[in-house]
User: Which sequence fits this backbone?
């Protein structure tokens, strides 16, 4: 795909990814978020953070299964939007829900498990965002890939946060957790395939070396 087309898609994707935040803002202004608008804003922002996380995790499988390699050009933007909506979700809680009442916030984090795992996911995401630049990728080398494997742990924590925050109908969070499980399973299968292939290659090389030594005796 030509660079000109890539840039055009990036602009459209940027606006598309921003549209949920614009909708949340408009709905809050127009009083379209129901009886508890603060809770609705929190829910929508958190939901879109989880959606963008799943979309980001799906980029590599789509590249490998469907040969859509050009999608890798947009993965960083999608990942940054995960952070954007997670910050929005957190900001609504800190500012509009708790009014920066830090004793109450700390009490929530300690005593309410779904808030505990949510904060943990937010903290773990920060180093991934900070190291998302090309410069940091070059500086960290192989450690960059190891660090960014934490995105799967973040996905699990976000999924638990969503599931535990629901009081009655858990159908929706279970759907998201099922999608996450499939993405994690795919990644795990690919990891073991590569490990098995490397193990088999080493055994073949050892066998050839033994055969070569025997032939020289």
Assistant:
């Amino acid at each position: 795909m030509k660079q000109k087309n890539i840039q055009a898609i990036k602009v459209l994707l940027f606006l598309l990814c921003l549209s949920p935040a614009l909708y949340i803002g408009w709905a809050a202004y127009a009083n379209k978020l129901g009886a508890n608008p603060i809770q609705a804003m929190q829910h929508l922002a958190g939901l879109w953070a989880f959606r963008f996380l799943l979309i980001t995790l799906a980029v590599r499988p789509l590249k490998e299964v469907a040969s859509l390699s050009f999608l890798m050009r947009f993965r960083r933007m999608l990942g940054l939007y995960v952070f954007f909506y997670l910050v929005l979700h957190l900001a609504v809680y800190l500012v509009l829900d708790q009014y920066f009442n830090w004793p109450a916030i700390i009490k929530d984090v300690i005593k309410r498990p779904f808030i505990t795992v949510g904060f943990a996911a937010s903290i773990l995401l920060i180093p991934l965002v900070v190291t998302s630049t090309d410069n940091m990728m070059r500086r960290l080398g192989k450690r960059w890939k190891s660090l960014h494997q934490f995105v799967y742990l973040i996905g699990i924590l976000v999924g638990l946060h969503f599931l535990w925050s629901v009081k009655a109908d858990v159908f929706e969070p279970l759907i998201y957790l099922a999608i996450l499980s499939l993405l994690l399973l795919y990644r795990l299968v690919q990891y073991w395939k590569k490990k098995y292939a490397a193990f088999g290659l080493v055994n073949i090389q050892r066998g050839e070396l033994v055969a070569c030594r025997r032939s020289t005796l």
Observations:
- The first helix runs from residue 3 to 29.
- DSSP finds nine helices and no strands in the chain.
- Residues 3-179 form one domain.
